[in-house]
Structure formats: C-alpha cells, structure tokens
Amino acid sequence: MTVPLETQVIIIGAGMSGLLAAIRMKQAGVDFVVLEKSLEVGGTWLDNCYPGSGCDVPSHLYSYSFAGNPHWSRLFARQPEILEYFRDQANRFRLRPHLCLGVEVASADWDEASTRWTVTSADGNRWRAPALIVATGQLNRPRTPDLPGRESFAGAQIHTARWHADAPIAGKRVGVIGTGASAIQVVPEVAREAGHLTVFQRSPHWIIPRMDAPISPAMKRLFASVPLLRKAFRALIWRRLEATHPAIAEPGGVKAREMEKMALDYLAATIADPALRQALTPDFPIGCKRTLVSDDYYPALASDNVTLETRAIDRIEPGGVRLADGALAELDTIIWATGFETHGFVAPIAINGPAGSLAQAWANGARAYRGTTVAGFPNLFLLYGPNTNLGHNSIIFMVERQMEYALPAILKVARGEARRIAIRPEAQQAYNRTLQARLATTSWAAGCGSWYKTDNGVMPNNWAGNTAEFARMMKRFDAEAYEIA
Ligand code: NAP
Predict the structure, then answer these.
(1) pTM more than 0.70
(2) Order of strands, edge to edge, in the sheet holding 32-36?
(3) Which atom of ligand 1 is nearest to the CA of 56?
(4) 182 Cβ closer than 6 Å to some ligand 1 atom
(5) Banded pLDDT at 87 (limits 50, 70, 90)
(6) How close is the Cα of 461 to the center of ligand 1, in Å?
(7) Whose alpha carbon is nearest atom 17 of ligand 1?
(8) In angstroms, rounded to a whole number, what is the distance separating the alpha carbons of residues 376 and 360?
(9) Which of 163-167, 306-310, 328-332 has the weakest average pLDDT?
C-alpha cells in the first residue's frame, strides 16, 4: 500500500457537481483533489455522446448561476457544446492541477482516531482528508436488461451511455430498445442513417414539444453585452419550468390536465396514423415517468424506414429480437436505450463509516438528510444525492443549493475547526418520513414503472417539492441537527 496523500478535501467525480464543489474549494483556498474515473471532466456529458444527445432544460438555465454563457448556440444546446462548457469551467477556475483523471475510486474508509477519510483507488493509490465530497451522480452506471440470449446476438450492441463513433448504423437494420429520454433523442438521428430502424416500445411516454431554436448572433451579442438581460432570460426559464411543478405535485389536477392536453394535441398534430397514435398514447398520469420534450421523435417514428414495435420482447437471438408472438425482428445492431442503475448512488464505491458500510445502511433504499449528509457517516457530503432529482427543472440549481448549504460544514472540518460533523439519526429519520409521505401523493407514485421507485416502493431519487422550496430549506446549514465535535 502506498502512503496516502494528505489533503483537506477529497472530491469524487468531475461531472457537473464535482466541478462545482472544486470551484467552491478553490475559491475558499483549501487544499483538495478531484478523483475522476474518466480521462476528462464532464461526467454524464462526457459519457452520453450518442447522436442527438442534449439537455432537455434550456441551456441558459442548465449552466452555473455564476458562470453564465452568452454564446449558447441554441435554446437547448447539444452534448458537445455542454461538454465544452464544463471543460471551459475546469480551465477558467484553474481546476486542472487538482484533477486526478483516470482514477477509479474503489473505497473510502473512515478512521475514527484521526477523523479522516482514506480513499483508495482501484490501482491502490490512496488519499486522506478530513472531508469527503461524493459527486458521482445518479445516472452514471448504464443498465442493460438481462434479456435471455443477449450475449448470443451476432451483430453489434451499444448502450446510449457508452456510445462509440464506429457503431454500425449507416444502412443497417438497427433496433433501439427503450423509449425514454435517451431513446427519443437518439431515434431521430439513427433514423436518418439506418437502412431500417425498429423502436421497441414497452410503454409510451408523455412527450411535449421542445420548441428548440438556434439563438441568433444578434441575440448572443446582446446577451454578452447586457448580462442583466441574460440573467433575466435565465430567471424567466426557471419560472416557467417551476410553474409546471403542480403537474407532479397534484396528479389529475389543473396543471396535469393542461400538460396532458398539450401532449395529446402535439401527438395528434404530428402522427396522422390513428393506430400509431393509439400506440403512442400513455396510459398513466403525466409526470409519473419523466415527461419528455422533443420536436423530432414523433416525426421520426412516422418515417418510412421506421417501425414502432409494441409487441413484447421474448429474447435476443443471433439474428435479432424474438418477439412474444414468435416473430423475429432481424437486426444488425441493437442500441440499448434502457437507462441507468440509479438506486445505488455511490455504488460500486465501498464507503465504510465508523459503524458499517453505506451499502448496508442503504439496503432498504438510499436515504440522506436534505440529500447531502448521511447518519453514521461523519464528514461525508453528497452532491445530487438521494431525493435531489427533479422532473421539472434544472439539477444544477439543486446542486448549487446543496453546495451553499454544506459549504460551512465542509470548510469547518477541512480547516480543522471541527473534527467531526455528523447528522443526528433522528433528524434524518424525521426528514425522510415527511419526504416519503409527500412523495407518495405525487404523480411519481401514480401507477407506472420508472427509475424513481425501488421494488419495495421507496422513492430514493426525487425531491418532493419545487426548487424554490428546496432553496428555502438549504439556505442555512442547520447546525442544531448535527453532532459537532
Ligand atoms: P429511462 O428513462 O429509464 O428509460 C429506459 C427505457 O428503456 C424505458 O422506455 C423502458 O421501458 C425501457 N426498458 C427498460 N428495460 C426494458 C426491457 N427489459 N424491455 C424493454 N424495454 C425496457 O432511461 P433514459 O432514457 O436513459 O433516461 C434516464 C434519465 O436520464 C432520464 O429520466 C433523465 O433524468 C436523464 N436523461 C436526461 C436527458 C436530458 O435531456 N436532460 C436525456 C437523457 C436522459 P418502460 O418505460 O416500459 O420502463
């Protein structure tokens, strides 16, 4: 074993959250390292480089509040531009000397005597610090369903979150399995190139128009020269998205009905074939699964070289996908747009606290206090942790609030002003009781399958309120809820 490198703060992950933490540490003047398994920053925006990848939150909002970008090329920038933005922030805030790229963290172990975390990488290097920030995201481990025969497929298989440019698409018989947020972005692009595309749909999702458009050079110049205008535009987008939250909070309510009508009108306007329209009509309340935004998915499905396949998949065979009724969809390439393992959060990193592992503590579902601290795990801070995901607004807004909340505590332990800060178990329990009770009345609980729920009905991913409520809650570090030594 190597001698651990001593620092004040260890950050795991160099995606949107980890970079934010790094910027704040840099500004505070503490010593820190960022350990990142990939060879570049960007997290999900590095991984999800499939054709059509982009963010369904407008870019003037999906960016740091303190690092606005007047040059976004479109309302909804695509992945390359978003990745470039995060790279730029790493350079602009001089984070590069702190980055350890290509370092996969295997474990983090708490030592009570020294009140330090020791983080060990898969190749045996170690770092030691009083404060540990885990910013590994909720959507970083691709999920490929274990359909029988998957390994026997004779063609190429690729997951949207592990794309490579040489995936055989052009002129090929391609199948996309899944119809979620990733699928609806990749399908129109693949449809343009493929000889034939089959989209395997298990459930239709609600889709509203994205209304994307390029931002004109004149507008960009205006945003650059009048920052107040850019900020006002950002605030306007935030407000408009926030106004859709009642569709989640009150399933069947006025906002939910208004959005369902918008989605059904859009479906009717874009899909002429009544049978196809019927197949694309969801049978669960809007918001239950993530509401999707797209201008080009429905038109792509209506293309001559695209088939929407709604028959269940029985198994994968060397020649393609065998359907439940015995028919074979012959394929050269399968694209798995089947989402992520989302309930393990920090997994597969083994985080071992003073009284056991985080995996044990979370055996019945991940739970944290305000998404940020975990009972039994002192000096550990999570960003985009349990119950901080949203269905209606920007995650960057949430993570910035988490960072503001946790910063005083992080700096206290980093600077040795406190040795040990741990959330009281009773505070965490009370917080989660209320949260889960509220989540049970949202549209997420309204009878559909989604990554928001575990098999035992716990909802470990999503925040129950709107973002303004989260901001109010996170305004102050409530030291009274913590044991501080
Ligand atoms: P997802 O929402 O979990 O969708 C997975 C899809 O695969 C679903 O349509 C699901 O069907 C299908 N599926 C899963 N297992 C299957 C099986 N055994 N047989 C047939 N179909 C199966 O995953 P995702 O689309 O990657 O999106 C995940 C999350 O990533 C999103 O909710 C969002 O938070 C984020 N994301 C965001 C953006 C963005 O623009 N900001 C873009 C992409 C992703 P069912 O619906 O029937 O379960």
Answers:
(1) yes
(2) 99-101, 32-36, 9-12, 131-134, 380-382
(3) 40
(4) yes
(5) very high
(6) 15
(7) 145
(8) 11
(9) 163-167
Distance CA 254, CA 257 (A): 5
**Cβ of 375 below 6 Å from ligand 1:** no
pLDDT at 413 over 90: yes
Amino acid at 90: A
> Is residue 138 a contact partner of residue 161, using CB atoms and an 8 Å limit?
no
3-state secondary structure string across 33-83:
EEEECCCCCCCHHHHCCCCCCECCCCCCCCCCCCCCCCCCCECCCEHHHHH
Ligand 1 mean position to 205 CA, how many Å?
10
Q: Is the minimum distance from the CB of 177 to ligand 1 under 6 angstroms?
A: yes
Count of other CB atoms within 10 angstroms of residue 294: 25
CA-closest residue to ligand 1 atom 1 = 339
Q: State if residue 342 touches ligand 1 by the CB under 6 angstroms criterion.
A: no
What is the secondary structure of 11-33 as a DSSP string?
Answer: EE--SHHHHHHHHHHHHHT--EE
Distance 244 CA to ligand 1 centre (A): 21
Q: Mean of the pLDDT values across residues 206-225?
A: 98
Q: Which residue's CA is the closest to the ligand 1 atom numbered 32?
A: 290
Does ligand 1 come within 6 angstroms of the Cβ of 316? no
pLDDT at 461 over 80: yes
CA of 165 to the centre of ligand 1 (A): 21
- Look up residue 290 and give its amino acid: R
Confidence of residue 313 (pLDDT cuts 50, 70, 90): very high
* 180: pLDDT strictly greater than 70: yes
Beta-ladder partners of 177: 200, 336
Cα 179 from Cα 336, distance rounded (Å): 10
The CB of 313 under 6 Å from ligand 1? The reply is: yes
Q: Is the pLDDT of residue 50 over 70?
A: yes
pLDDT beyond 80 at 439: yes
Task: Compute the distance between CA of residue 235 and CA of residue 240 in angstroms, rounded to an integer.
Answer: 9
- Using an 8 Å Cβ cutoff, are 158 and 335 in contact? yes
Contact call for residues 407 and 367 (beta carbons, < 8 A): no
Q: Is 181 in the pocket of ligand 1 (CB under 6 A)?
A: yes
Atom 31 in ligand 1: which residue has the minimum CA distance?
A: 181
Taking alpha carbons only, the member of 170, 46, 66 closest to residue 397 is 66
Residue closest to 249 by CA, chosen among 476, 468, 471:
468
Tell me how far the alpha carbon of residue 79 lies from the centroid of ligand 1, in angstroms.
17
pLDDT score for 219 = 98
Using CA positions, which residue lies closest to atom 41 of ligand 1? 55
